């Protein structure tokens, strides 16, 4: 099994090839608004570095949000195009789940937080579980004040908070007695995404490419109309300014 992972839901884009739990090749770019320019060359780079052809890939995993509108469109549309052309199964996973998965070995509750722009954050709470992590409640969107109130209200306390949204509000979160993880784990990564998706490919709990949909937690984003704007095959449709 060789999985292609695509994660473009935040300011950082990444692409990876993962064979079960081994990263074969990866590439990342931490430059905002460059998702469309980066993804296709990064796929080619990873294939070249791994010394394999696209025909060796057995599945495509992609980040489906919540996250930045333009990045989501690029990642999902690229996954749809690549998988449909080769009749491959796909798996779409939340970047919040991927962030929490990176911290799956800690013995404390985890809160994954992504910068949603417009003065808001996306977040979700997790607990370590056999094989990874388990989300404790639905994903949410709101202000830092709301997140701090939730952290304070949790009886178990002592949360590990991870993600770029956490870094942006480190002082407020630490004042709420949370531990903020460092910048090395601040963004969901395609390699972790692909590793997390592997059991779903093995169990054949997959989607057809055209069934992939972004996760929108804000009505304004949903109303933009994914279908009416097209699926941005290969990252070439008109851009929208995130924020």
Give a structural overview.
The protein is of the alpha/beta class and 243 residues long. The protein folds into two domains: 3-95 and 188-223, 2-Layer Sandwich (Nucleotidyltransferase, domain 5), CATH 3.30.420.40; 96-185, ATPase, nucleotide binding domain (Nucleotidyltransferase, domain 5), CATH 3.30.420. Helix content is 33%, strand content 24%. It has eight helices and eleven strands. The chain has helices at residues 35-50, 69-86, 95-102, 144-153, 164-168, 170-175, 190-202, 219-223; strands at residues 3-7, 13-19, 22-29, 59-63, 90-93, 110-117, 120-129, 132-135, 140-142, 160-162, 179-180. The strands form two sheets. Strands 6, 7, 8, 9, 10 and 11 form a six-stranded mixed β-sheet that branches. It has a five-stranded mixed β-sheet with strand order 3-2-1-4-5, sandwiched between helices. Strand 1 (3-7) and strand 2 form a beta hairpin.
């Amino acid at each position: 099994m060789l999985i292609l992972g695509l994660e473009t839901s935040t300011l950082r884009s990444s692409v990876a090839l993962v064979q079960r739990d081994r990263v074969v090749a990866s590439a990342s770019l931490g430059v905002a608004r460059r998702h469309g320019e980066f993804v296709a060359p990064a796929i080619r780079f990873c294939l070249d570095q791994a010394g394999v052809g696209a025909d060796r890939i057995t599945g495509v995993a992609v980040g489906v949000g919540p996250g930045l509108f333009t990045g989501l469109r690029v990642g999902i549309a690229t996954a749809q195009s690549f998988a449909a052309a080769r009749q491959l199964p796909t798996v779409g996973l939340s970047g919040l789940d991927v962030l929490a998965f990176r911290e799956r070995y800690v013995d404390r509750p985890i809160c994954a937080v992504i910068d949603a722009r417009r003065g808001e954050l996306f977040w979700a709470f997790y607990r370590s579980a056999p094989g990874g992590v388990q989300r404790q409640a639905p994903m949410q969107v709101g202000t830092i004040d709301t997140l701090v109130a939730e952290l304070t209200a949790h009886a178990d306390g002592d949360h590990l908070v991870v993600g770029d949204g956490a870094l942006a509000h480190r002082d407020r979160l630490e004042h709420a007695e949370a531990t903020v993880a460092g910048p090395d784990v601040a963004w969901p990564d395609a390699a972790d995404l692909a590793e997390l998706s592997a059991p779903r490919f093995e169990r054949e709990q997959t989607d057809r490419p055209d069934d992939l949909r972004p996760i929108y937690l804000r009505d304004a984003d949903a109303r933009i109309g994914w279908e009416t704007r097209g699926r941005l095959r290969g990252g070439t449709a008109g851009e929208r300014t995130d924020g």
